[in-house]
Design goal:
353 residues; eight-stranded parallel β-barrel; two-stranded antiparallel sheet
């Protein structure tokens, strides 16, 4: 027996044929039940969310890579093409071609783009590192302004500041950025709002998924302070790189909900899980789905061979481009939460986790 799911995406109304056995998708032992035309992006759209991937520009010539990327995902994050050194390798001389190619790829496939990332302590060009004080501050903010203006209208959310907090403590990470003054994050967000008032402005970090971690508490305090004082911030990205030392935490849902309660969107922005256990992927997806303001999930790469940590095979597709057991687990979890049989609107109210 078949059931049709009507899903509204950015590119129009898609009718995805699903089987009632969609309910069993999370069981890898039931391959016959998999609807061939349901994708991660379409299934996530059924919950009012996006499902994205990181894209590496130099892989856009690989047809297996682009085939999966175009088919499965509704959001794209340039993996390395929009960092500071990539976009402003010489002072005042901008290099947008690599980033543009990814934005063009996304546009051609009806996908949205997360800008990644404007200010991040690695990936700073040598000319910048040689500056100090107010000259450095001005160069940083000029960078934010120029890059955001270039992509205005084509990128709807930006990781304005990435990974500004240190591991294991509630302190900010020491970096050249920090040494321009303790208010640099706030100034970056204010500058970003002026540069592109329509863009959503995100803070993005790893190791902030566990509510009990000092780093999580420190970032929460910053976002709370920003929202209380009217510093413009719209979203917080939880990278979610999980492994046996840092598994999906039991408090993940509490964390997402507490941040969302501050009035920001929350997003899973760089998901990968060592060995890609279906149950752990299902748990991560379910956690987002249970928080109304969790607006989307991005996995950090397409195939295992594309991953920044390919040795731990943490993604949804193997090196040959075939779906791994975690794929139907994710699709099933999304499908279970899809509003079936009607045109879908914004995310449903969250349930307590
Ligand atoms: O996946 C990215 C890898 O190709 C780069 O070598 C690395 C350093 O620039 O950055 C990786 O992506 C990181 C992301 O930009 C920010 N969060 C952590 C990611 C993994 O290191």
């Amino acid at each position: 027996m078949t059931r049709r799911i009507r899903i509204r995406t950015r590119t129009g109304l898609v009718a995805a044929t699903a089987l009632t056995a969609l309910m069993t998708l999370s069981t890898p032992a039931a391959p016959a039940a998999r609807p061939a035309d349901l994708t991660l992006g379409a299934a996530a759209a059924g919950t009012g969310r996006w499902f994205g991937t990181a894209i590496a520009g130099y892989k856009l010539a690989d047809p297996v890579y682009t085939g999966i990327a175009a088919r499965e995902f509704s959001m794209v994050t340039p993996e390395n093409e929009m960092t500071f050194d990539a976009t402003e390798p010489r002072r005042g001389q901008f290099s947008f071609a690599p980033g543009d190619r990814i934005v063009d790829f996304a546009g051609a496939n009806g996908q949205r783009v997360r800008g990644h990332t404007l200010l991040w302590h690695p990936g700073l060009p040598a000319w910048l590192v040689s500056l100090g004080g107010s000259e450095l501050r001005a160069a940083l903010m000029n960078h934010v302004t120029q890059v955001m203006r270039h992509y205005q209208g084509r990128i709807d959310s930006w990781d304005v500041v990435n990974e500004a907090y240190a591991d294991g403590t509630g302190r900010r990470r020491d970096s050249i950025l920090e040494r321009t003054g303790g208010d640099w994050i706030e100034v970056a967000f204010r500058t970003a709002r002026v540069a592109d008032p329509a863009a959503k402005l995100c803070y993005n970090d790893y190791g902030i998924e566990d509510w009990t971690a000092a780093k999580t508490q420190a970032v929460y305090a910053m976002v709370k302070d920003f929202t209380a004082r009217g510093v413009p911030i719209d979203c917080v990205g939880f990278e979610s790189h999980f492994d046996h030392l840092s598994p999906v935490p039991a408090t993940y849902g509490t964390t997402l909900r507490n941040f969302a309660d501050l009035g920001v969107d929350v997003q899973i922005t760089e998901l990968d899980i060592e060995a890609a256990p279906p149950a752990a992927y299902r748990q991560a997806v379910r956690t987002c789905l249970r928080v109304r303001r969790c607006t989307g999930i991005t996995v950090w790469g397409v195939r295992d061979s594309d991953s920044w940590r390919s040795g731990s095979t943490p993604l949804l597709f193997d090196a040959a481009g075939d779906k791994k057991p975690a794929y139907p687990a994710v699709l099933g979890e999304l499908g279970l939460n899809c509003s079936r049989g009607r045109t879908l609107g914004p995310p449903r109210p969250g349930r307590p986790v």
